[in-house]
Amino acid sequence: MREHSHDLKYPNEVNDLINLDDPLIHGYLLRLIGEDGITLIRNMPEGEVTDEEICNALNPLRAVSKAADDRVKKLNIEIKAAKEKGEETKKLEKELAAAEKEAVTAKENVGDEKEITLNTVRKILFILYENKFTICHRERDANSGWLTFRWMINMDGIYHQIEREKKKLYRNLVKRKEYEDNNIFYVCPQNCLRLVFDEATETEFLCPLCGEDLVFQDNEPFKELLDKRIEEFEETA
């Protein structure tokens, strides 16, 4: 097992499973794609799949209900066509009655199942794609010209991505600490805004939004917090 800075571990093989319950990985993905996104990754079907297939996997009871409704619609169409041709419809009508009963039961079974919509699935997939966590292949139907996107999760680069994010956060903390060290701040007592000394003098120490007198802000507690966060990063480097 190879190890990297900040105690990040890399899998031996590129296809090793990612532990989504690892606090580091879970926290990173939570900020990136939310709980629905983590649920999507946990329940992603194997192989290359369409967004609709993913949505059905995330909403299994709704998928059953939709299939039952589609069956009812199909039978109604077949019965109408048969009647127009003067054909016998008793068998189809019997099938329709059973299908309608199944559709009602399926709809009742949906209950409190949390729905993750197709639009949400697509949004999550494209966020993952932008961060190189999915592989996407496009297929164009020769007759209709319709594009079908097929997706597969590829989390091999997540450890490197987290490492980059941590370095970026560290740089931002250092820059923010320098900013806090090099400035004197005044704030509006109504929490309208926060100004550095030069900006406050330009407004004659009056809030430009509400007119209240600006007051000096002691930023030492915030600077101490920044120092603590920076130290934590440096200790794990």
UniProtKB/TrEMBL annotation:
GO terms for molecular function: DNA binding. InterPro entries: TF_E_archaea, TFIIE_asu, TFIIEa/SarR/Rpc3_HTH_dom, WH-like_DNA-bd_sf, WH_DNA-bd_sf. Keywords: Coiled coil, DNA-binding, Transcription, Transcription regulation. One of its GO terms (biological process) is transcription initiation at RNA polymerase II promoter. Residues 90-228 form the Transcription initiation factor IIE subunit alpha N-terminal domain. Transmembrane segments: none annotated. Residues 65-109 form a coiled coil. Pfam families: TFIIE_alpha. The winged helix domain is involved in binding to DNA in the preinitiation complex. Belongs to the TFE family. HAMAP family: TFE_arch. Transcription factor that plays a role in the activation of archaeal genes transcribed by RNA polymerase. Facilitates transcription initiation by enhancing TATA-box recognition by TATA-box-binding protein (Tbp), and transcription factor B (Tfb) and RNA polymerase recruitment. Not absolutely required for transcription in vitro, but particularly important in cases where Tbp or Tfb function is not optimal. It dynamically alters the nucleic acid-binding properties of RNA polymerases by stabilizing the initiation complex and destabilizing elongation complexes. Monomer. Interaction with RNA polymerase subunits RpoF and RpoE is necessary for Tfe stimulatory transcription activity. Able to interact with Tbp and RNA polymerase in the absence of DNA promoter. Interacts both with the preinitiation and elongation complexes. This is Transcription factor E. It comes from Methanimicrococcus blatticola.
